[in-house]
Amino acid sequence: MWITVIGSLGFLLYFAYDINSITKNNRLLQKGFFVGTVLVALVTVGIFTENRSVSDFNPIRVVGFGAAGLLMFALLVYTLFFALPFEATYLEDNRKRLAYTQGVYALCRHPGVLWYAGMYLCIAGVLWTKEALLEGLFLTAWNIAYIVLQDFWIFPATFENYDEYKKTTPFLIPNRQSIRKGLETLPLGKGERK
After folding, report:
1. Who's near 125: CB < 8 A, 6+ residues apart?
2. Residues 6+ apart with CB under 8 A from 146
């Protein structure tokens, strides 16, 4: 129960942070993203501590899902904190700027959700409990609600080119054309682009 409450609070802080960024720009609410991330990380650890089961331990399943989950986590961290210019995205005052449309952001407009959902599915695969699966689905549903807010209100108010980006890039599920563009525009070394 505490996982759903704290996870919900984390996402409500994300909502407050984004809404604040285009309305009041309150300095206290600017901390919402950081505090929300801490809470979501806390509940992710909580899923492991609340759902330990040694009776269904299968080393092949644990290693397989564990490796895939670590890959999903690495992709999530890369997508949110390294594929974007960090300071302009998370630390500077909100101002009109251009949406980043290359690399993982050419795959779809919200690639982090794919890795986020995949990570929780892998956690459920490692733990092999219904509760871990339901908690992961619950947090993923919050994440999808969050990106709907971003896609329809926050990002069009934040990025000058967001309407054009929406026309050329899928919302959530990559297609053949977006996968090709994503692969063609991945970083090639020291920030160079193909």
Report:
1. 61, 64, 65, 68, 69
2. 11, 14, 15, 18
Q: What is the mean pLDDT of residues 130-155?
A: 97
Chain centre to alpha carbon of residue 130:
23
Token pair belonging to 177:
């054309």
CB-based contact 193:185 (threshold 8 Å): yes
Task: Identify the pLDDT of residue 44.
Answer: 96
For 163, the token pair is 């309407």
The domain spans of the chain are 54-184
27-78 pLDDT tens trace: 889 899 999 999 999 999 999 988 876 667 789 999 999 999 999 999 999 9
pTM: 0.89
**What 3-state class would DSSP assign to 89?**
helix
Instruction: Label residues 60-85 b or e (16+ Cβ within 10 Å = b).
Output: eeeeebeebbeebbebbebbbeebbe
Closest CA to 151 of 134, 133, 163: 163
Segment 132-145 shows an average pLDDT of 97
CA angle 144, 150, 154 (to 5 degrees): 165
